[in-house]
Amino acid sequence: MRIDLHCHSTASDGTDTPAELVRNASAAGLDVVALTDHDTTRGHAEAVAALPRGLTLVTGAELSCRIDGISMHMLAYLFDPEEPALLAERELVRDDRVPRARGMVARLNELGVPVTWEQVARIAGEGSVGRPHVATALVELGVVATVSDAFTEDWLSDGGRAYVEKHETDPFEAIRLVKGAGGVTVFAHPGAHKRGRTVPESAIAELAAAGLDGIEVDHMDHDADTRARLRGLAADLGLLVTGSSDYHGSRKTCALGEYTTDPEVYGEITRRATGAFPVPGTGGA
Q1: Are 215 and 242 in contact (CB under 8 A)?
Q2: What is the pTM of this model?
């Protein structure tokens, strides 16, 4: 089985619609794909309706969190999307995205970059607006060559010149909320140093003690040494190890299935989840 547990659609900052994502996942030879848009489940229904035969969909979201001033992302799988407490927290985070993006536009203007809110809003479309949309605007203006080049201290990385904070969930609270909604939690790309400061191993140990299920080890932002270190940390802490593409369509260079999750780990994730269940494809729309 080929299993990719971290993908994005136009419901947040990907460039594939949810329907295109599942069709492309099937064409890429995946058996299981997770739709984990930022702080939203809005793309799930479309993905389910278009799900090709032979492909299984894992519903989820990537939750924006912050611990000790460090931004981090928590992948949440197979939770009940209507559970009130988790739904309210996702809406709080999502509602803060627009003023945050407007703030980044204002800071870029102060730095002499002629980006406009209208440009960013056009790029985001119906998706949950975020830094990748602002980064895409910088690419359109020729300020940087690629979206990744915008995530530096000069521009949009944590603490960068145009960075603006948003409401982010305490990760211990995120674990509690996801567990309360019957879901499973995995710390996304914990060693992605090029994105900014990373969470120390001591804090990951505290998260594990609080119920964190796993860490995403095999990821494009982790080099071989980082993957080896994280794999050892996971073994020490009794955490599941996942691998994922973090696919964003044409917005990033990673391909669907570039990194994958072991079938036994996937089986354990589905065993632990009680809020929702993987959806098998029946042919799609």
Answers
A1: yes
A2: 0.86
